[in-house]
Write a structure and sequence with these properties.
Blueprint lengths: L1 H30 L16 H22 L17 E8 L12 E4 L12 E5 L3 H11 L5 E6 H7 L3 H9 L3 E5 L6 H5 L1 H4 L7 E3 L6 H12 L1 E4 L6 E8 L4 H17 L6 H4 E7 L6 E5 L12 H107 L1
Parallel strand pairs: 3-4, 3-5, 5-6
Antiparallel strand pairs: 1-8, 1-9, 2-7, 9-10
Helix pairs in contact: 2-9, 3-8
Protein backbone atom coordinates (compact mmCIF):
# COMPACT_ATOMS: atom_id res chain seq x y z
CA UNK A 1 0.00 0.00 0.00
CA UNK A 2 2.84 2.31 0.78
CA UNK A 3 4.32 1.69 -2.63
CA UNK A 4 1.02 2.35 -4.37
CA UNK A 5 0.55 5.60 -2.45
CA UNK A 6 4.01 6.80 -3.37
CA UNK A 7 3.45 5.89 -6.98
CA UNK A 8 0.21 7.81 -7.13
CA UNK A 9 1.85 10.86 -5.61
CA UNK A 10 4.70 10.77 -8.09
CA UNK A 11 2.30 10.45 -11.00
CA UNK A 12 -0.03 13.22 -9.81
CA UNK A 13 2.75 15.65 -8.89
CA UNK A 14 3.57 16.88 -12.40
CA UNK A 15 -0.11 17.48 -13.18
CA UNK A 16 -0.52 19.49 -10.00
CA UNK A 17 2.61 21.54 -10.83
CA UNK A 18 1.18 22.40 -14.22
CA UNK A 19 -2.33 23.23 -13.07
CA UNK A 20 -1.74 25.04 -9.77
CA UNK A 21 -0.18 28.28 -11.10
CA UNK A 22 -3.13 28.88 -13.41
CA UNK A 23 -5.65 28.35 -10.58
CA UNK A 24 -3.72 30.76 -8.36
CA UNK A 25 -3.64 33.39 -11.04
CA UNK A 26 -7.39 33.23 -11.60
CA UNK A 27 -8.06 33.42 -7.86
CA UNK A 28 -5.81 36.46 -7.50
CA UNK A 29 -7.44 38.15 -10.47
CA UNK A 30 -10.89 37.65 -8.93
CA UNK A 31 -10.00 38.85 -5.44
CA UNK A 32 -7.85 41.90 -6.16
CA UNK A 33 -7.18 44.10 -9.14
CA UNK A 34 -3.84 45.59 -8.11
CA UNK A 35 -1.85 42.33 -7.81
CA UNK A 36 -0.51 41.16 -11.15
CA UNK A 37 1.75 38.14 -11.52
CA UNK A 38 4.75 38.84 -13.75
CA UNK A 39 7.28 36.25 -14.94
CA UNK A 40 10.57 36.47 -13.07
CA UNK A 41 12.70 36.73 -16.20
CA UNK A 42 10.90 39.70 -17.76
CA UNK A 43 12.54 43.15 -17.52
CA UNK A 44 9.12 44.81 -17.09
CA UNK A 45 9.02 44.61 -13.29
CA UNK A 46 10.63 46.31 -10.32
CA UNK A 47 13.71 44.98 -8.60
CA UNK A 48 12.84 44.76 -4.90
CA UNK A 49 16.46 45.19 -3.84
CA UNK A 50 16.84 48.35 -5.93
CA UNK A 51 13.60 49.82 -4.54
CA UNK A 52 14.63 49.05 -0.95
CA UNK A 53 18.10 50.50 -1.52
CA UNK A 54 16.66 53.74 -2.95
CA UNK A 55 14.14 53.98 -0.09
CA UNK A 56 16.86 53.64 2.56
CA UNK A 57 19.07 56.24 0.87
CA UNK A 58 16.20 58.69 0.50
CA UNK A 59 15.02 58.38 4.12
CA UNK A 60 18.59 58.74 5.36
CA UNK A 61 19.10 61.88 3.26
CA UNK A 62 15.87 63.50 4.44
CA UNK A 63 16.64 62.68 8.07
CA UNK A 64 20.17 64.08 7.92
CA UNK A 65 18.97 67.27 6.26
CA UNK A 66 16.27 67.80 8.89
CA UNK A 67 18.81 67.32 11.71
CA UNK A 68 21.15 69.91 10.22
CA UNK A 69 18.66 72.62 9.24
CA UNK A 70 15.78 72.31 11.72
CA UNK A 71 15.92 74.10 15.04
CA UNK A 72 14.36 72.45 18.06
CA UNK A 73 10.91 73.84 18.84
CA UNK A 74 10.07 73.53 22.54
CA UNK A 75 6.34 74.03 21.91
CA UNK A 76 6.04 71.27 19.30
CA UNK A 77 4.64 67.87 20.24
CA UNK A 78 7.16 65.14 19.43
CA UNK A 79 4.39 62.57 18.90
CA UNK A 80 2.87 64.56 16.05
CA UNK A 81 5.47 63.65 13.43
CA UNK A 82 3.24 64.03 10.34
CA UNK A 83 3.41 67.82 10.59
CA UNK A 84 7.15 67.83 9.91
CA UNK A 85 7.27 64.81 7.59
CA UNK A 86 8.20 65.27 3.95
CA UNK A 87 6.34 63.54 1.17
CA UNK A 88 8.08 60.90 -0.93
CA UNK A 89 7.08 61.00 -4.58
CA UNK A 90 7.17 58.41 -7.33
CA UNK A 91 7.88 59.90 -10.77
CA UNK A 92 6.62 57.90 -13.75
CA UNK A 93 7.92 58.99 -17.15
CA UNK A 94 6.22 57.67 -20.28
CA UNK A 95 7.55 57.31 -23.81
CA UNK A 96 4.67 59.26 -25.30
CA UNK A 97 2.44 62.12 -24.20
CA UNK A 98 -0.93 61.35 -22.62
CA UNK A 99 -3.15 62.83 -25.30
CA UNK A 100 -6.41 61.05 -24.45
CA UNK A 101 -8.34 63.63 -22.39
CA UNK A 102 -10.96 61.04 -21.37
CA UNK A 103 -8.34 59.15 -19.32
CA UNK A 104 -7.13 62.18 -17.34
CA UNK A 105 -9.59 61.62 -14.50
CA UNK A 106 -7.83 61.15 -11.08
CA UNK A 107 -7.55 57.50 -9.99
CA UNK A 108 -7.44 56.17 -6.42
CA UNK A 109 -4.73 53.59 -5.66
CA UNK A 110 -4.95 51.77 -2.28
CA UNK A 111 -1.73 51.69 -0.23
CA UNK A 112 -0.57 48.92 2.13
CA UNK A 113 0.64 51.65 4.50
CA UNK A 114 -1.68 54.68 4.21
CA UNK A 115 -0.29 58.20 4.28
CA UNK A 116 -3.28 59.49 6.27
CA UNK A 117 -4.04 58.01 9.69
CA UNK A 118 -7.80 57.75 10.20
CA UNK A 119 -7.44 58.31 13.95
CA UNK A 120 -5.54 61.61 13.72
CA UNK A 121 -6.44 63.07 10.30
CA UNK A 122 -9.09 65.79 10.23
CA UNK A 123 -11.25 65.75 7.11
CA UNK A 124 -13.53 68.39 5.59
CA UNK A 125 -16.28 66.98 3.36
CA UNK A 126 -17.72 69.23 0.64
CA UNK A 127 -21.12 67.99 -0.53
CA UNK A 128 -24.07 69.03 -2.61
CA UNK A 129 -27.11 70.63 -0.96
CA UNK A 130 -28.66 69.97 1.49
CA UNK A 131 -25.69 69.43 3.81
CA UNK A 132 -27.81 68.40 6.83
CA UNK A 133 -28.52 65.00 5.26
CA UNK A 134 -24.80 64.20 4.99
CA UNK A 135 -24.06 65.46 8.52
CA UNK A 136 -26.60 62.95 9.87
CA UNK A 137 -25.05 60.16 7.79
CA UNK A 138 -21.57 60.98 9.13
CA UNK A 139 -22.88 60.80 12.71
CA UNK A 140 -24.61 57.46 12.03
CA UNK A 141 -21.45 56.03 10.42
CA UNK A 142 -19.35 56.99 13.46
CA UNK A 143 -16.96 59.26 11.56
CA UNK A 144 -17.60 62.46 13.52
CA UNK A 145 -14.08 62.41 15.00
CA UNK A 146 -12.52 62.11 11.50
CA UNK A 147 -14.88 64.21 9.36
CA UNK A 148 -14.93 67.30 11.55
CA UNK A 149 -16.74 69.54 9.06
CA UNK A 150 -19.37 69.12 6.33
CA UNK A 151 -19.97 72.08 3.99
CA UNK A 152 -22.59 72.42 1.26
CA UNK A 153 -21.67 73.95 -2.07
CA UNK A 154 -24.01 76.94 -1.62
CA UNK A 155 -22.63 77.70 1.86
CA UNK A 156 -19.09 77.42 0.51
CA UNK A 157 -19.88 80.04 -2.13
CA UNK A 158 -21.59 82.42 0.29
CA UNK A 159 -19.36 82.18 3.37
CA UNK A 160 -15.84 81.74 1.96
CA UNK A 161 -15.35 84.56 -0.53
CA UNK A 162 -12.27 86.34 0.77
CA UNK A 163 -8.70 85.08 0.57
CA UNK A 164 -8.32 85.07 4.37
CA UNK A 165 -11.41 82.90 4.95
CA UNK A 166 -10.24 80.39 2.33
CA UNK A 167 -6.76 80.30 3.87
CA UNK A 168 -8.20 79.64 7.33
CA UNK A 169 -10.38 76.86 5.92
CA UNK A 170 -7.38 75.30 4.17
CA UNK A 171 -5.19 75.35 7.29
CA UNK A 172 -7.88 74.02 9.64
CA UNK A 173 -8.08 70.54 8.00
CA UNK A 174 -5.56 67.93 6.89
CA UNK A 175 -7.57 66.53 3.98
CA UNK A 176 -10.48 67.67 1.83
CA UNK A 177 -12.96 65.32 0.20
CA UNK A 178 -15.63 66.41 -2.26
CA UNK A 179 -18.66 64.83 -3.87
CA UNK A 180 -17.72 63.62 -7.35
CA UNK A 181 -20.78 65.42 -8.76
CA UNK A 182 -19.55 68.87 -7.71
CA UNK A 183 -15.75 68.48 -7.74
CA UNK A 184 -15.50 70.20 -11.14
CA UNK A 185 -17.24 73.28 -9.69
CA UNK A 186 -14.64 73.81 -6.94
CA UNK A 187 -11.60 75.33 -8.79
CA UNK A 188 -13.27 78.72 -9.46
CA UNK A 189 -14.65 78.77 -5.88
CA UNK A 190 -11.52 77.71 -3.96
CA UNK A 191 -9.00 79.27 -6.34
CA UNK A 192 -5.23 79.22 -6.04
CA UNK A 193 -5.43 79.04 -2.24
CA UNK A 194 -6.18 75.31 -2.58
CA UNK A 195 -4.92 74.45 -6.06
CA UNK A 196 -1.41 75.95 -5.83
CA UNK A 197 -0.27 72.81 -3.98
CA UNK A 198 -1.42 69.22 -4.36
CA UNK A 199 -1.70 68.54 -0.61
CA UNK A 200 -5.03 70.32 -0.15
CA UNK A 201 -6.70 69.70 -3.51
CA UNK A 202 -10.15 68.15 -2.82
CA UNK A 203 -10.33 64.43 -3.63
CA UNK A 204 -13.40 63.22 -5.50
CA UNK A 205 -15.46 60.70 -3.49
CA UNK A 206 -18.79 59.06 -4.19
CA UNK A 207 -21.24 60.19 -1.49
CA UNK A 208 -24.42 58.08 -1.46
CA UNK A 209 -27.21 60.23 0.05
CA UNK A 210 -29.03 57.47 1.98
CA UNK A 211 -26.42 54.84 2.84
CA UNK A 212 -24.19 55.50 5.87
CA UNK A 213 -22.20 52.24 5.58
CA UNK A 214 -21.32 52.84 1.95
CA UNK A 215 -20.34 56.42 2.71
CA UNK A 216 -18.06 55.17 5.51
CA UNK A 217 -16.37 52.69 3.16
CA UNK A 218 -15.80 55.37 0.52
CA UNK A 219 -14.24 57.78 3.02
CA UNK A 220 -12.02 55.09 4.57
CA UNK A 221 -10.89 54.03 1.08
CA UNK A 222 -10.00 57.63 0.23
CA UNK A 223 -7.98 57.95 3.44
CA UNK A 224 -6.11 54.72 2.71
CA UNK A 225 -5.31 55.56 -0.92
CA UNK A 226 -3.16 57.90 -2.96
CA UNK A 227 -4.24 59.76 -6.07
CA UNK A 228 -2.89 59.25 -9.57
CA UNK A 229 -3.38 62.59 -11.35
CA UNK A 230 -2.77 62.09 -15.06
CA UNK A 231 -1.81 65.19 -17.03
CA UNK A 232 -1.35 65.84 -20.77
CA UNK A 233 2.41 65.35 -20.52
CA UNK A 234 5.03 62.59 -20.35
CA UNK A 235 5.59 62.86 -16.57
CA UNK A 236 3.31 61.84 -13.68
CA UNK A 237 4.06 62.24 -9.96
CA UNK A 238 2.37 60.18 -7.23
CA UNK A 239 2.76 60.65 -3.50
CA UNK A 240 3.55 57.18 -2.13
CA UNK A 241 4.88 57.67 1.42
CA UNK A 242 6.22 60.02 4.09
CA UNK A 243 9.75 60.48 5.38
CA UNK A 244 8.64 59.05 8.75
CA UNK A 245 7.99 55.63 7.16
CA UNK A 246 10.50 52.81 7.27
CA UNK A 247 12.31 51.80 4.11
CA UNK A 248 10.33 48.54 3.95
CA UNK A 249 7.02 50.45 4.15
CA UNK A 250 8.11 52.82 1.38
CA UNK A 251 9.16 49.88 -0.80
CA UNK A 252 5.83 48.10 -0.31
CA UNK A 253 3.89 51.24 -1.19
CA UNK A 254 6.02 51.76 -4.30
CA UNK A 255 5.39 48.18 -5.42
CA UNK A 256 1.62 48.59 -4.92
CA UNK A 257 1.46 51.88 -6.83
CA UNK A 258 3.59 50.64 -9.74
CA UNK A 259 1.58 47.41 -10.05
CA UNK A 260 -1.68 49.39 -10.07
CA UNK A 261 -0.47 52.10 -12.47
CA UNK A 262 1.51 49.99 -14.94
CA UNK A 263 0.47 46.39 -14.30
CA UNK A 264 -3.24 47.18 -14.58
CA UNK A 265 -2.56 49.79 -17.30
CA UNK A 266 -4.02 52.71 -15.37
CA UNK A 267 -1.27 54.64 -17.11
CA UNK A 268 -1.73 54.49 -20.91
CA UNK A 269 0.51 51.83 -22.44
CA UNK A 270 1.32 50.05 -19.17
CA UNK A 271 4.87 48.75 -18.77
CA UNK A 272 5.52 48.96 -22.51
CA UNK A 273 4.65 52.65 -22.50
CA UNK A 274 6.80 53.52 -19.46
CA UNK A 275 10.26 54.98 -19.89
CA UNK A 276 11.60 55.36 -16.35
CA UNK A 277 10.59 55.29 -12.67
CA UNK A 278 12.27 57.50 -10.06
CA UNK A 279 11.87 58.02 -6.32
CA UNK A 280 12.45 61.43 -4.74
CA UNK A 281 11.59 63.90 -2.00
CA UNK A 282 10.99 67.65 -2.48
CA UNK A 283 14.60 68.43 -1.51
CA UNK A 284 16.49 65.51 -3.06
CA UNK A 285 17.54 64.36 -6.50
CA UNK A 286 15.49 61.69 -8.27
CA UNK A 287 16.82 58.19 -7.57
CA UNK A 288 16.24 55.79 -10.50
CA UNK A 289 14.65 52.44 -9.61
CA UNK A 290 13.70 51.25 -13.11
CA UNK A 291 14.65 52.14 -16.70
CA UNK A 292 13.09 50.70 -19.82
CA UNK A 293 15.28 48.27 -21.78
CA UNK A 294 13.76 49.42 -25.08
CA UNK A 295 13.12 53.06 -25.86
CA UNK A 296 11.47 52.38 -29.22
CA UNK A 297 9.09 49.61 -30.23
CA UNK A 298 8.70 48.14 -33.69
CA UNK A 299 5.66 50.34 -34.21
CA UNK A 300 7.73 53.47 -33.58
CA UNK A 301 10.40 52.58 -36.17
CA UNK A 302 9.43 53.72 -39.68
CA UNK A 303 10.26 51.22 -42.42
CA UNK A 304 11.20 52.18 -46.00
CA UNK A 305 7.80 51.13 -47.33
CA UNK A 306 5.95 53.06 -44.63
CA UNK A 307 8.11 56.12 -45.29
CA UNK A 308 7.41 55.92 -49.03
CA UNK A 309 3.67 55.55 -48.49
CA UNK A 310 3.71 58.44 -46.02
CA UNK A 311 5.55 60.64 -48.52
CA UNK A 312 3.12 59.64 -51.26
CA UNK A 313 0.16 60.57 -49.07
CA UNK A 314 1.78 63.91 -48.30
CA UNK A 315 2.32 64.65 -52.01
CA UNK A 316 -1.26 63.69 -52.84
CA UNK A 317 -2.54 65.92 -50.08
CA UNK A 318 -0.37 68.78 -51.32
CA UNK A 319 -1.64 68.33 -54.89
CA UNK A 320 -5.24 68.40 -53.69
CA UNK A 321 -4.54 71.57 -51.76
CA UNK A 322 -2.93 73.22 -54.81
CA UNK A 323 -5.93 72.26 -56.97
CA UNK A 324 -8.27 73.80 -54.41
CA UNK A 325 -6.21 76.99 -54.31
CA UNK A 326 -6.29 77.26 -58.13
CA UNK A 327 -10.04 76.72 -58.17
CA UNK A 328 -10.54 79.43 -55.55
CA UNK A 329 -8.33 81.85 -57.51
CA UNK A 330 -10.31 81.16 -60.71
CA UNK A 331 -13.62 81.75 -58.96
CA UNK A 332 -12.32 84.97 -57.48
CA UNK A 333 -11.13 86.14 -60.89
CA UNK A 334 -14.55 85.46 -62.44
CA UNK A 335 -16.29 87.38 -59.67
CA UNK A 336 -14.02 90.38 -60.23
CA UNK A 337 -14.75 90.32 -63.97
CA UNK A 338 -18.49 90.26 -63.29
CA UNK A 339 -18.15 93.21 -60.96
CA UNK A 340 -16.21 95.19 -63.58
CA UNK A 341 -18.83 94.40 -66.24
CA UNK A 342 -21.56 95.67 -63.92
CA UNK A 343 -19.64 98.87 -63.15
CA UNK A 344 -18.94 99.79 -66.86
CA UNK A 345 -22.53 100.98 -67.81
CA UNK A 346 -22.63 103.08 -64.67
CA UNK A 347 -19.41 104.79 -65.75
CA UNK A 348 -20.91 105.66 -69.17
CA UNK A 349 -23.97 107.20 -67.51
CA UNK A 350 -21.74 109.27 -65.25
CA UNK A 351 -19.84 110.64 -68.31
CA UNK A 352 -23.14 111.80 -69.89
CA UNK A 353 -24.09 113.49 -66.65
CA UNK A 354 -20.74 115.26 -66.63
CA UNK A 355 -21.28 116.71 -70.13
CA UNK A 356 -24.72 118.03 -69.18
CA UNK A 357 -23.29 119.48 -66.01
CA UNK A 358 -20.57 121.31 -67.94
CA UNK A 359 -23.24 123.02 -70.06
CA UNK A 360 -25.10 124.16 -66.97
CA UNK A 361 -21.98 125.49 -65.26
CA UNK A 362 -21.80 129.03 -66.94
CA UNK A 363 -25.38 129.93 -66.01
CA UNK A 364 -24.88 128.73 -62.46
CA UNK A 365 -21.68 130.74 -62.16
CA UNK A 366 -23.46 133.97 -63.24
CA UNK A 367 -26.18 133.44 -60.67
CA UNK A 368 -23.69 132.83 -57.87
CA UNK A 369 -21.69 135.97 -58.78
CA UNK A 370 -24.79 138.18 -58.75
CA UNK A 371 -25.90 136.81 -55.39
CA UNK A 372 -22.43 137.44 -53.97
CA UNK A 373 -22.57 141.10 -55.10
CA UNK A 374 -25.95 141.59 -53.45
CA UNK A 375 -24.68 140.05 -50.22
CA UNK A 376 -21.65 142.36 -50.21
CA UNK A 377 -23.83 145.45 -50.74
CA UNK A 378 -26.13 144.51 -47.88
CA UNK A 379 -23.15 143.94 -45.61
CA UNK A 380 -21.78 147.39 -46.42
CA UNK A 381 -25.11 149.07 -45.68
CA UNK A 382 -25.31 147.26 -42.32
CA UNK A 383 -21.85 148.52 -41.41
CA UNK A 384 -22.84 152.16 -42.23
CA UNK A 385 -25.95 151.93 -40.09
CA UNK A 386 -23.92 150.52 -37.23
CA UNK A 387 -21.51 153.48 -37.41
CA UNK A 388 -24.39 155.97 -37.28
CA UNK A 389 -25.86 154.20 -34.28
CA UNK A 390 -22.52 154.27 -32.51
CA UNK A 391 -22.17 158.04 -33.09
CA UNK A 392 -25.66 158.71 -31.71
CA UNK A 393 -24.93 156.59 -28.68
CA UNK A 394 -21.76 158.53 -27.97
CA UNK A 395 -23.65 161.88 -28.23
CA UNK A 396 -26.32 160.71 -25.85
CA UNK A 397 -23.73 159.56 -23.37
CA UNK A 398 -21.99 162.95 -23.48
CA UNK A 399 -25.24 164.87 -22.97
CA UNK A 400 -26.19 162.69 -20.04
CA UNK A 401 -22.83 163.32 -18.41
CA UNK A 402 -23.15 167.14 -18.85
CA UNK A 403 -26.66 167.09 -17.39
CA UNK A 404 -25.37 165.21 -14.36
CA UNK A 405 -22.57 167.76 -13.87
CA UNK A 406 -24.97 170.76 -14.03
CA UNK A 407 -27.30 169.12 -11.57
CA UNK A 408 -24.44 168.49 -9.22
CA UNK A 409 -23.30 172.17 -9.39
CA UNK A 410 -26.81 173.45 -8.58
CA UNK A 411 -26.96 171.22 -5.52
Amino acid sequence: MAKSKSSTVTKAAPKADEAQPEVKKTEVAKKTETVVTVPSDTPYQLNNEQVLKASKALIKFVGSKEDKSAKKNLLRDDEDSNDRAQAIWLNLTTKKFNTDVRKLKPIQIPLPHPIHDITTTTVCLIVKDPQRNFKDLIAVAGLSSTVTRVIGISKLRAKFKSFESLRLLRDSHDLFLADDNIVRMLPPILGKTFYNTTNKVPIAVETPPNNAEKLKRKIERALGSTMLHLTPSANTSIRVALSTFTAEQVAENVQAVVNAALGNKKLPGGWRGARSIHLKSPSSVALPIWLTPQLFDEEDVLTAEAAASKEQKFLEKQEKQNAKNKERAQKKKEKNQQKRAAIAPADEESEDDKSEGEEKKPAEEKITKSTEKLVDASVKEQKKRKRVVDVLDKGLDASVKEAKKLKAKKL
